[in-house]
Write a structure and sequence with these properties.
By secondary structure, the chain is mainly beta. 0% of the residues lie in helices and 53% in strands.
């Protein structure tokens, strides 16, 4: 499975960005996909996850501001980010756990940078 993120960029606080993650290669009918982020000097943290049934989960600090979604026909994962804050500045990564019972996310994209200025 190959994952390629896009959509990152620079935005002012309060603005919005929509990240995309295109998946290709061996696809599975059952999976988890997620967005993670890592800021300089900080540990990587999960932002949101979605499974093949459309179940979603968010880290508390992102609830209400970020929305994870998918387009199965396009094999694409999205992250809509609204009301962005400077502390959202990080490299954002798309990851996949296939099949869903795999022990961890074993496929990762190269990341897309998000920079939020105050």
């Amino acid at each position: 499975v190959q994952l390629v993120e896009s959509g990152g960029g620079s935005v002012q606080a309060g603005g919005s960005l929509k990240l995309s993650c295109a998946a290709s290669g061996n696809t599975y009918s059952t999976y988890f996909m997620a967005w993670f982020r890592q800021a300089p000097g900080k540990e990587r943290e999960k932002v949101a996850a979605i499974d093949d049934n459309g179940w979603t989960d968010y880290t508390d600090s992102m609830k209400g501001r970020f929305t994870i979604s998918q387009d199965k026909a396009k094999n694409t994962l999205y992250l809509q980010m609204n009301s962005l804050k400077p502390e959202d500045t990080a490299m954002y990564y798309c990851a996949a756990k296939v099949p869903r019972w795999a022990s961890d996310y074993q496929y990762w994209g190269q990341g897309t940078q998000v920079t939020v200025s105050s």
